[in-house]
Amino acid sequence: MKKIPQITHDSLPILDLRAFYNLETRASFLNELQYIARHVGFFYLIGHGLDTQRIQEILSYTHQFFALEQQEKDHLAITNSPHFRGYTKVNGELTQNKPDIREQIDIGAEQKEIPFTANTPMWTRLQGPNQWPHQWPDFRQVVETWLSDNQRISIDLLHAFLLALGVDEKSLDPFVLKNPNESLKLIHYPKVSSQAEPQGVGAHKDTNILTLLLQDDTGGLQVQLDDHWVDIPYVENAFIINIGETLELATNGYLIANKHRVISPQNKDRYSVAYFISPNIFAGNIPILDLPQHLKNLAKGPTSDPKNPLLIDVAENNMKSRLRSHLDVTKKFYPNLYTTLNHAQGGIYEKQ
């Protein structure tokens, strides 16, 4: 097997997806992917089929959205949506109970909401419509096309991951091919003074299968490896790929979802576009893949934070994350759960 260098302070492995599509180079690609996935967990992806023009287009629309008047953005407030879709102001989302210094808009697959009754599982409310700028139809078209392209790339990449792990590439198709629970965040991190709290977004793991992140050249993204925080610099036209908790569950901990964070920029604003793919919300418990024995022997079970336990039901795990991160939505649409969360945290959200 080809050895891939460990991550350093100024490098991250780069994989070219064209090598996966080419049968002559596929085996080498899969060897590299298996090593990187196990020992690094983050990598750059090029050769994904999206050219510079497409990438600059989505970044341009991201800039344009956040340049809208505050009143226009507030009209799309996430607090309008029990489905956690819409715009969040700076300091409006929490990570580890601290506000993130970023604004964002959350968008998912455009679907009708599921009628909610007392007997309906709470996580069914993850499905629902988006909020779009009414006077800007091009925005919706560009974003939905980006969603579609990212879904294609992520499913191809998931197939590559499964082959690299020595299992059937279609093992998870029943969970992701039909109506995957996908989410897109357009994100703006405003620059801050050197004296300000630097949490652009706090240290966390993603709940999904895979994340495709497009970032600008501002910097600030860091990954935790061996108890050290490592900078992840910009690479032109490359996605940054990371493993989410769902893939960690499916491999019984052979692959680990890495913690990562963003340090608020001081010199100029940072913009990024993050795509997350998860199984269909009706998937239930993610199955444990039947890894080859030599890999299975290395799988020690998924990690779990006692303060934020990992749930095997993928929809429940996703819903748990949303409820904790967007307390304003939780308080408005899920008041009983808000009270429970507040009590569990010792009343830090508001005194009882």
From TrEMBL:
One of its GO terms (biological process) is ethylene biosynthetic process. The keyword Oxidoreductase applies. GO terms for molecular function: 2-oxoglutarate oxygenase/decarboxylase (ethylene-forming) activity; metal ion binding. Pathway: Alkene biosynthesis; ethylene biosynthesis via 2-oxoglutarate. InterPro entries: DIOX_N, IPNS-like_FE2OG_OXY, IPNS-like_sf, Iron_ascorbate_oxido_reductase, Oxoglu/Fe-dep_dioxygenase_dom. It holds the Pfam family DIOX_N. Its cofactor is Fe(2+). It is an enzyme of class 1 (oxidoreductase). Its EC number is 1.13.12.19, 1.14.20.7. It catalyses: L-arginine + 2-oxoglutarate + O2 = guanidine + L-glutamate 5-semialdehyde + succinate + CO2; 2-oxoglutarate + O2 + 2 H(+) = ethene + 3 CO2 + H2O. The keyword Metal-binding applies. Gene3D superfamilies: B-lactam Antibiotic, Isopenicillin N Synthase, Chain (2.60.120.330). SUPFAM superfamilies: Clavaminate synthase-like. Keywords: Ethylene biosynthesis, Iron, Metal-binding, Oxidoreductase. Residues 180-279 form the Fe2OG dioxygenase domain. PANTHER family: 2-OXOGLUTARATE (2OG) AND FE(II)-DEPENDENT OXYGENASE SUPERFAMILY PROTEIN-RELATED (PTHR47990). Belongs to the iron/ascorbate-dependent oxidoreductase family. This is 2-oxoglutarate-dependent ethylene/succinate-forming enzyme.
